[in-house]
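tool=predict chain=A
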Amino acid sequence: MTSSTSPKSAASRVKPGRMAHATLAILSAMNLLNYLDRSVLNGMLPLIKEEWTLSDTKVGLVVSAFMIAYMCFSPPFGWLGDRYVRKWIAGIGVAVWSVSTAASALARNFVQLFSLRMVLGVGEASYATVAPTIITDLYPRQSRSKMLSFFYVAIPVGYALGYILGGELGIRFGWRMAFLMVGLPGLLMALAIFFIKEPVRGQSEEVSDAELSQYLSTRIPLKAYGELWFNKSYVYDTLGMILMTFATGGLSAWMPMYFYRVRGIELASADRYIGIATLAAGIIGTFFGGWLADKLQTRYKSAYFTVSGVGMLLSVPFTVAAVYAHAPLLCWLSVFCAEFFLFLNTGPANAILINVTMPKMRVTAFSINIFLIHALGDVFSPTVIGHVSDKTNLLFALLITMPVAMALSGVFYLMGARHVAADTDRVVERMKSGE
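tool=predict ok
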């Protein structure tokens, strides 16, 4: 590696070109399949519930099965991702989750489907922990929120397609055939990993080539991982994401059921309308949030936290309106607005995780974040909502959980704004000192 004495000249070594953009496109396409395979179940839950006469609690457990494995296997894959070639870990993950989705077509009872959804979580855990850090090493800090927005826009698009395809294919061909049709394409997509070039860890940071080389030659001390709990930006960001994930997990699992069962809307129509609203709001909100955060970041170092927090707070009244509104136009408009503000934080919140952690331990930092946001978020939110619904009713269960979680998420994001500048600068300073 050629030595350089200027951090500014070192930043110029990362000039994103065709290879970087191609890698971003491939990883984003894989992430789209990730969320499609994850969410297609939600559009078919009423069909499975009726065929197997499941309680709402068991319906929630089927949804949570994926998350249980996803969160438990994320830390081990984080450890591997910080030490081995990340793209191969990602490629294996794509193949595993695709096989498990297709194999769900063979499930004949609750236990079998629960088990296959757990295998799905293992495959997706290996991918989700390493892919964002590959993108980070391809693009400089000032454009990370925007570039990560391209990757994470797969969340709303994948969820929307899951609703639409799950409902349409499930009703037309049966839910088993729907699993098969959405699972098999992932096996072909896994082969695209051969076209990705593994970037050097930390190459996009503003340090010289010599400083980067020295930093990469050192070992990560165990105490560095413990320091994450004293990194206030990381902690507040994770707390905000925990509560955001709790809310979105409940929304994705129960809103189609709510409109089908409480409002009397046909399942295919409910899936379609929610899918369209999620698709439009997710794409616009994710890209707008990433663009706005990067734009404001040039003037305010706390912009990533501020955009995330304000977006979560603004989502609260629209969520309540979506549940209560009886006029169809007002209902679907409220769903769109609620999800638009929910998705504003997607790029900025993940960029914060990157910016405040050291390059050689970012995969692990991501994996710990994934474990926590799901262990304390959407692993149990569908089950909690289902249990409260069994005891009371679904309307009450939704209203006492989601708006409160959204509001608290916004508060934690805003609390992190005062710490992010110092925590971000500390990363570069430690890299320069060779820590």
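The mean pLDDT is 86. The first helix runs from residue 7 to 11.
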